[in-house]
Design a protein that fits this description.
The complex is a heterodimer of chains A (446) and B (269).
Chain A: H1 2-12, E1 21-25, E2 33-37, E3 41-42, H2 44-54, H3 59-74, E4 77-79, H4 89-94, H5 98-103, E5 108-117, E6 120-129, E7 134-143, H6 148-164, E8 173-180, E9 187-194, E10 201-202, E11 210-215, E12 221-228, E13 231-238, E14 244-249, E15 254-259, E16 265-272, E17 275-282, E18 288-290, E19 298-303, E20 309-314, E21 321-326, E22 333-334, E23 341-347, E24 353-360, E25 363-370, E26 377-382, E27 384-390, E28 396-402, E29 414-420, E30 426-429, E31 434-440
Parallel strand pairs in A: 2-4, 2-5, 3-5
Antiparallel strand pairs in A: 5-6, 6-7, 8-9, 8-31, 9-10, 11-12, 12-13, 13-14, 15-16, 16-17, 17-18, 19-20, 20-21, 21-22, 23-24, 24-25, 25-26, 27-28, 28-29, 29-30
Helix pairs in contact in A: 3-6
Chain B: H1 2-22, E1 40-41, H2 54-72, E2 88-89, H3 92-126, H4 132-163, H5 168-181, E3 195-202, E4 208-213, H6 225-241, H7 251-254, E5 256-262, H8 264-267
Antiparallel strand pairs in B: 1-2, 3-4, 3-5
Helix pairs in contact in B: 3-4, 5-6
Classes of the chains: A alpha+beta (446), B mainly alpha (269).
Chain lengths: 446, 269
């Protein structure tokens, strides 16, 4: 009974019931995230050893510069000026004074240490959340000293993945056609470089015309087309060993061989009896299979990442447009319907988009559309540009752009450019010579 | 002494029993609920969308198509799709909020008219020299009553404000502030359900006492890397933004807030 009265008394007490206020935040900014990349700390002994081996004054600072440049190039990060840093690298690596880093508006901080251990380079690094005042990630690598640039790229990949949620694309290479000489007599060589333009090397001598190199999605193999005694020939090249083999000679106009997602087949187009169609070749038994069969010109095939579909361009509707079909050649469906001509379709490694080149009213565009043809977005426009190739995470496209020649035939150049899916972060990729036909490798560290 | 206590106790007991007996839920009478009125919040677009005559509509659609084509040639900016429909039926709490906002607007007007009437009345009567003193007294009483009324009204308003959520302008101010602080991780997939709800405890000046991720367990589950990245970015935004732009009054109602971070609209392109 007493309890009942107590209950009644309790409910009589004046209490205020507040409903929890909820606010939906559905928008944010796309400004680059301010990050501080502290130079990696290094002790005197290690510094001297690396100076002897690599001829670099301070390898710790050099690696941090690679990370900084990579992050800046991505357009998603804003690396802060090192002159503003208040804390020394060695102390920052042990325990950052977050107030100091907060003061310069850094939201994330990268610190680390380089040591010389058993003739090897050992790097440990940490990623800190400055605002939360906590460590987000800590990793260590050991490698041969000559790999120091790759260490910088791997650190960037890890930082990028931790802060954006998607895999990075920095520990990768780009294969392209190096071009030199006058436009009418170009010397074309196969060349390979890191994605940031360093470690450039030439893979062919330039005696024969080389075209359309394409990386295998699974390993460091490249397939490309070369004209041997004026006949198109498809090659396979292992870029680690330098071993090269001929896949086969094909009749007439052969174009753009490309690997299947499992790396076991090559898909390409060639003209048999005057009719250009899509074919695949099994790399184990070298059996060639016809995929498309139509009197029109079908070229530039590219597999979807799951290998179930193929996108290609064809003029079967009267104009060159993009089509998608099943990997057995059935269920052909046109997906591009805009004005102009569409070509070089490439399926994104994420599987959600197809990149293409578009020619309309005398101008070339690089764009993307969904795999059903909807949501077409033109990312960049220029006098002449083509051949987009995806970064392994499907965020950035690399392509090449040519400039106009003047009345005297001078001023021609071909350069590699990259653009991300937002369409705002367009940058020229540094190459030793003029360059065309780039292809992006998968991540080397995978 | 004991007698007084026992009298007091007895009286209090009687009071409690009377109150208890008169409580509506104890009488067990069926409660007649007022009919629920559904209220729709309609967002007004920037341009008036008047339905056109069929012929005119066709012409306009043609023009739109042409415009579309032109735009697609110039690498248009990201289109942000709205998942939610423009007209959203509000939950009961929000209905209350709207009603109270209306009430708040009406009450001050009433007060003003009262005050005006008094002043006119005063003016009229001032000319009657015989009853000046009486009038002065009356006006004093009236103005005192008006003051009381005014006080009552403002107190009532405060009470109502205590129970309401944020007004639209207060919510907009807070949203705008956080929009500026939140760097969206662009690598997140837009197809996944990535909604991060964060409960905040705030000081009266808008600075943060405590943050708590509602679904905290999901942060450390395997395969929830994207959720973790989003949650961390949301926490950074809150810390970067503080002190939050909160209303200057009614601390009790917003001292605890929940922010729901959803990046899908921004990521869909």
């Amino acid at each position: 009974m007493t309890l009942r009265y107590l209950f009644i008394l309790l409910i009589l007490l004046q209490t205020k019931a507040f409903a929890l206020i909820e606010v939906d935040i559905t928008r944010g900014n796309l400004n680059p995230l301010p990050v501080a990349i502290s130079p990696l700390a290094i002790d005197k002994n290690s510094k001297d050893n690396f100076k002897k081996i690599l001829k670099k004054e301070n390898i710790g600072a050099e690696i941090s510069v690679i990370v900084e440049n990579n992050l800046k190039q991505s357009g998603l990060f804003d690396p802060l000026n090192k002159d503003a840093f208040l804390q020394k690298p060695d102390i920052a690596n042990l325990k950052p004074r977050f107030e100091d880093w907060n003061l310069i508006k850094a939201q994330a901080l990268v610190t680390g240490k380089v040591t010389f251990v058993d003739e090897k380079l050992r790097v440990e690094f940490r990623l800190w959340d400055v605002l939360a005042g906590k460590e987000m990630m800590a990793l260590a690598f050991t490698t041969v000293p000559s790999n120091w640039r790759r260490v910088g790229h791997i650190i960037t990949d890890k930082v990028y993945e931790r802060l954006t949620g998607e895999k990075g694309y920095f520990d990768t290479r780009i294969i392209y056609i190096s071009e030199e000489g006058p436009k009418t007599n170009r010397i074309k060589r196969l060349a390979l470089m890191d994605q940031d333009g360093f470690n450039n090397k030439f893979l062919t001598l330039g005696n024969e015309l080389v075209l359309t190199p394409r990386f295998s999605p699974t390993n460091q193999m490249v397939t490309y087309l070369s004209y041997f005694r004026n006949l198109p020939r498809v090659y396979l090249l292992d870029i680690e060993t330098g071993m090269q083999e001929v896949v086969g000679d094909f009749p007439g106009m052969t174009f753009a061989p490309r690997f299947s997602p499992d790396g076991k087949k090559i898909i390409m187009s060639f003209a048999k009896d005057g009719n250009s169609d899509i074919y695949t070749m099994d790399l184990e038994n070298r059996i060639v299979e016809r995929i498309s069969n139509h009197p029109s010109i079908d070229t530039s095939p590219s597999y979807s990442p799951n290998g179930k579909y193929i996108t290609f361009n064809s003029d079967r509707s009267g104009y060159q447009q993009i089509y998608v079909m099943s990997s057995n050649g059935k269920n052909v469906k046109r997906i591009s319907f805009g004005n102009g001509l569409y070509g070089t379709p490439v399926w994104s490694p994420r599987g959600d988009l197809i990149a293409f080149t578009k020619l309309h009213k005398g101008k070339f565009y690089i764009g993307v559309m969904r795999t059903d043809g909807t949501g077409e977005r033109l990312l960049t426009e220029n006098f002449y540009q083509e051949a987009p190739s995806w970064s392994p995470n499907g965020r950035v496209l690399i392509f090449y752009r040519e400039t106009k020649t003047n009345a005297k035939g001078e001023g021609f150049s071909a350069k590699l450019w990259s653009i991300d899916l937002t369409g705002y972060n367009e940058k020229m990729v540094k190459t030793a010579t003029d360059a065309s036909d780039p292809s992006w490798s998968s991540l080397l560290s995978n | 002494m004991n007698r007084n206590i026992s009298i007091s106790l007895g009286l209090h007991t009687i009071l409690v029993i009377i109150t208890a007996m008169s409580l509506p839920f104890l009488s067990k009478k069926p409660i007649e609920l007022p009919p629920i009125i559904s209220v729709e919040l309609i967002q007004i677009t920037d341009k008036t969308n008047i339905p056109f005559a069929p012929k005119a509509k066709k012409i306009i659609e043609k023009v739109k198509e042409k415009e579309k084509k032109l735009v697609s040639e110039q690498a248009p900016p990201k289109k942000i799709k709205k998942l939610k429909p423009d007209a959203v039926p509000l939950p009961d709490e929000k209905i209350e909020k709207i009603k109270k906002i209306k009430d708040e607007k009406q009450n001050p007007e009433k007060v003003e008219t009262d005050v005006k009437q008094i002043s006119e009345f005063e003016k009229k009567e001032l000319f009657d020299t015989n009853s000046i003193a009486a009038l002065i007294d009356k006006s004093k009483i009236d103005s005192a009553q008006t003051k009381k009324k005014l006080e009552k009204i403002t107190q009532n308003q405060d009470k109502e404000a205590d129970f309401a959520g944020l007004t639209l302008s207060e919510e907009d101010a807070l949203k705008a502030q956080i929009f500026g602080c939140w760097s969206i991780p662009l690598g997140l997939p837009y197809s996944e359900n990535l909604l991060v709800r964060i409960k905040l405890q705030l000081k009266p000046d808008g600075s943060i006492i405590r943050t708590e991720i509602v679904d905290h367990a999901r942060m450390n589950k395997p395969g929830q890397g994207f959720y973790k990245v989003l949650a961390e970015s949301a926490l950074r935004a809150i810390k970067l933004c503080q002190p939050l732009r909160v209303p200057s009054k009614g601390y009790e109602r917003w001292k605890e807030l929940q922010l729901n971070f959803d990046a899908r609209e921004m990521l869909q392109g």
